Structure formats: C-alpha cells, structure tokens
C-alpha cells in the first residue's frame, strides 16, 4: 500500500492568463503572468456540508498591469509591511499588498536577475525586511522599508541564476557551479559544478544554514553553509521545474506529476498526477501547485493516517521514523507519547512474527509493552491463576506463536529462545517489573522445558516470585528434581517457617540466619512474632531489617531504640559494676538516635523521662524539633535544661550542660522567647544564655521583615499579572491554533499550546524565536506594550 501524504484540491480551475509565478500569504494569493500582470485573489478554505470534503472559494480582489509587457518572474510578500515585491524585465517593483498600487513612481531597483528574502534574518533594524538581490556580476544585500529599498553590502560573483539566503549565508547558483557566501566576512565556499545545459539550478533553504540543490545525475544534494553534506542525496526524476519543502517531505513537480520524497530516508513516497505542472511553493504551511492556467492546493494528510498506512503495509521502520519526526502535532504531549508507545508495541509484534528478534526486543523495551501480551502468545506459560485479557484495540492479530511461525517447529523454538532472553533481560535492567510473578514463572517453565543448566543460576541470582504450584508441577513433569529442591529453598517460605523453632531453640544467634539469609520473601512482622521468645535473635533481626535491608518502617526503628533505652536504664540501676557495658550501650543508642530519622519520638521521650539519659534526650529533641508542636516541645526541652542544670551543679566542665544550652541556641527560632525566659532556672546568669537570646531576637526580627517583603512582592506581582491579562484579553482575545500551522523558522508543527505569535500573523516556537520583539521571518522589530500602558501603537508579544 502506497503512502498517501497529500491530497490534491483545486483552488482556481482556470484563469484568463498564463501563470508564470505565484505567491501566497495567509488567505491572499498573487499570480504573475507573461503580460506583466499581477492579480490578487482572496482564497477561503471551506468544508462541504454533505460530504465533509474541503474545497476552496476564491474572489478576485485587484489586478495590476506593470506596463513592461514582459513576464513577471518573481513575487514575494512582506506581510509585516503590507507590501508585495514584483520582479519583471529586470525591474524590482514595490506594490501595496491589498490594492496593488505602485509605491513610488517606478521600480525600486533595476538590472535585477533574481532576488530572495532572508528567511532567518539577523538584523534588528525595525520595520525592514532583509533581501538578497542578484545582478549581472554581484549580489547585493538590501533592506526593504515601506517605501524604499536601501543598499547594505555588495559581493562580487558571476551572474547568479538562483539564490537562497539564511542568516549570514547566501547560497548562489552561478553559471555551471554552486557556492556559499558568508555575508558578514565576505568569504565564499565553492560547492560543486552542475551541467547548465541539462539542469536548472534549484536552490531551496531546508533548515538553518542548510540548502537543497539540484545536483548532477538528477540528484537532490543537501549542503550546509560549511560546504558539507549531512544527509544522503535524493534521487529524483528528470524535468523538475520546481522544488519545495514541507516537513518532513521534499515535493518536486514536473510537466505530468507531483512527486513526494521523505527527508528522513530520502525515498520516494507518493506520486500525484498533475498535468502541465510548473510551480510549487510552501507559503507558511500552505502548499500550492500551479500549471499554466490553474492553481491547486496540496492538503497534507494527518501524520497519524500516514503512520497507519505504513503499519498496515508492515513498513515498520518508516512508520516509527515518521512518528518520531512528526512530533505531537494536533495533540497533547501525553496523547502523543501514548500513541507512540502503542506504535512501538505494534512494531515489536510485527518484527516478532517475522522472526527479527533483535528489533522486536528493542521495540518492546522502547514501547514499555505489557510483558503479559508477549507471554500470552506462548501457550502454557501464563499462570492459570492470572486472568489476562489482551489489549483493546488489539496490538496484533496473532493467535499464538505457532500460528505466527506457521507451525515451523524450528522457528517456534527460536521464538521461545527469544522470549527467554527477553524476560531475563527485563530481570537484569534493575528496574521494578510490574508483573514479576508472570515473568519468573515463564522463565522457570521455559528453562525446565529445555532442561537448561542455567535454571540453577537463575534461582541463585535473586528473589524468585513465581506461581509455586505450577512451577513444581512443570519441574516434576520434566524431571528437573535438582532444580525443584533448589526452588523449594529459594521460593517456598513454608520451609523456613517449618524449621525455624528447631534451629532457634539450639542457638538463637545462629538460628536468626534462617530469616536473614533466605531468598524467600518473608513477612517481617511474622518473623518478629516468632522471635518474641528469643530476645537476642529478635535484636539481630531488627538490625538486619534496618542496617541491611534499609527498611524505613518506624515501628522497627522505634522498637530498636526502645530496646537500647531499656537496656541503658537497666545498667544504670545496677550501679558502678556495669560502667563499661553502659558506655557501650549508650554509644549504640546515641549513634542510632542521630543516624535514624524513622523512629517515633513520643514513646522514646516518655521512656527516657525521669532517667539520667540527658544527652540522648537532647539528641531526640535536636533531630525532631521542627516537627513538633512548639509549646509542648518548649516545656520538654526546658525540663531537659533544668534537669541538666541540677545534675551539673558544682561542675565547671560539664558536657551535658553544654548540650542543653546548645539545644536552645540551635533551635532558637522555633521556641517562644517569653516562654523560655519564664522557665529558665533562676540560677543561670545572662552570660549562659546570651547566645540563645541573640539568635532568638535576630531570627524573630528577620522573619518579621521577610514576611512584610513577601506580602508586598506578592501584592505587586498580582496587580501586574491582572493588568497583563486584562490588556491581552482586550487587545487580542483568544488565539486559534490550527493543526496545520507550522513554525516559520524550523517548518515543524506545534506539539503543545506554547507558541509565539507576532502582529503580522507569523507563528514560531519560543525556542526558535528567542527575541520576542523581533519577527524571525521578516525581521520586523516590535515593542512590548505591557511595559507601559501610555504608549499607543506599540507591539505586544503573545505567548501561550
């Protein structure tokens, strides 16, 4: 099935003149004839009520006879200035774009052979359009104003036949060769020759600093401003009269046909019959073609329809590349990503059916396919307990892998090897697998069926989450008894529960390894319940959960902290005989209090109340102070201070007293100053708390000033935004964004509702038009008007 990228729709069936050139801007269409006549039509796109088909209505607005009786060879609009440039008999005229009246008394320039507009202007001069004009032995860079053309620079070159300009670069087709000029430096770069007798030198700007040239041997050559080619050439036909570019296609026209080529792979995609074709042009996303006396429009088909056509004919690579280069035109980013993922998934199943397994796996991974869609193609591998329905609409029309491989047993075995490798690759990605049980079950069944020695290695590699009854039956059926024994120890928790008490009764410290070293998935709460009779083993398992498995469940952290608090209190009560043990336990407790932030402080502080664990109490407050009610924390913190003060009387160098004072100083901003002063021990002097008072007052004053500044800034910003919104709604109202609108700089569509629009109707991506005050197409400079409501007639930048 051939790709259908464009439809041909008639615009003007017949006109009473010979069309030699044309130009369009928005709904305005201009025709130039061989009798020095220029005609202006208004073109409107409409939809037929009955059939829903698009058609065009035209209305002749004005006509101008230049009086030269020579052919009009070129037309170009400057929509920002409301002007139309006309080249006839070597004279460059400037007309009013609406009524076609001549601006001034005659032509603005003479002896002109060809001209072009800089499509990527680099000038900031307001109200001008940058031109490149070709004369007999030179090219001239000029600025077009509303009523005149001013000369800027001249570069010597043999008589130019065709030219195109982008930024500082001009690509010139001379007599028999191409070259690129750097306008800024004046240097030139020769490109390649062509046969002037058999080849018309087409020159077309494609992208920034890149041009398409008609080369020898009917080749369309892509050349950058640096003189190199970054794309393969296009092999097109003879007799091409015009070339245009509509992303991502190159359109050529001959006397009988319009041909469409892809910029992605440089291949021919579509041919449309068009008798007498002479002209083709892309005018801000509107494609027109013309013969001697008629004009038609090339209506682009939505890229989604083009992709579907390619997928229906199983041209997978072309479909994926077209979708990648088309972007989210006419849809949201989320819709585009979902559509593209579905496309990749369908591409994967097509490649799987063709036995191209590397590409199938690549598409499955990129498309994040539901792994059950793949497993379900292989009978018996999906667990019976899983109720799985394939996606709707379907991603493929395959019943199973046997049907896909037409019953060829060799190909079926290759497809099973692919599935095994694909599932193992998912396990090695290091990312969470949504359907882990289905994956592990399928891997075990596939390896058991092949009696693969790698199955033992798979069971050793990590936690196994499989449908155990089915895997046991499968292994027994295929007599894989050694693997079956390994599976029991790796995946059956009942083995652990059955023998845990037996081991713990004999050696609790060694017995806890039954739970810490198993590969089975165990419930920690159930393990702790079993270990209630074995305190040492329970303590070891808690350390395993927190230090090894890095669990952040606060109940495990709280229990471990409380254990060390109780142990420290017990050793304190025993007296001096347990000093060394007490220091060890308090060291572990302090390390745990400072390293963990997942324990509950209330039960810990409650258990410490009335004890001499002052440093530990201060550590709890120091870590959790910002998360507590300030009044409750204030009272608790000052109790610590008071207790510390009493315990440290008579000691000049007391660490605990210093810790209590530091607690107040570090968190001075979180405590109410008056409450702290009321509760401070009366024996404390000002020198003890002066650091706290200084920090508290500074923090309070700083927060007060910050709040005032924030309130003023928010109020000012709110007023500014309201004023801007008011001006925008008043001046422009809503801005429609048609699906076929493209950026004037990169010629790509708009993938989101973010764009920049200028008063002359030009639209661009914000990234392509970094200066919001300068039109990237015409170079016109506008002034943002929301800066001052008193400046009439200034320009506004509209961006959504």
UniProtKB/TrEMBL annotation:
Localization recorded for this chain is:
Cytoplasm
Q: Which is one Gene Ontology cellular component term of this protein? A: membrane
> Where does the source fall among the domains of life?
Eukaryota
Keywords (A to Z) from UniProt: Cytoplasm, Protein transport, Receptor, Transport
A Gene Ontology annotation in the biological process aspect, one of them, is: autophagy
InterPro entries, alphabetically?
CNH_dom, Vam6/VPS39/TRAP1, WD40_repeat_dom_sf
PROSITE patterns given for it?
Answer: CNH (PS50219)
Keyword Nucleotide-binding on entry? no
Which intervals hold domain CNH? 16-287
- Name assigned to this protein: Transforming growth factor-beta receptor-associated protein 1-like
Give the originating organism: Homarus americanus
Q: What gene does this protein come from?
A: Tgfbrap1-L
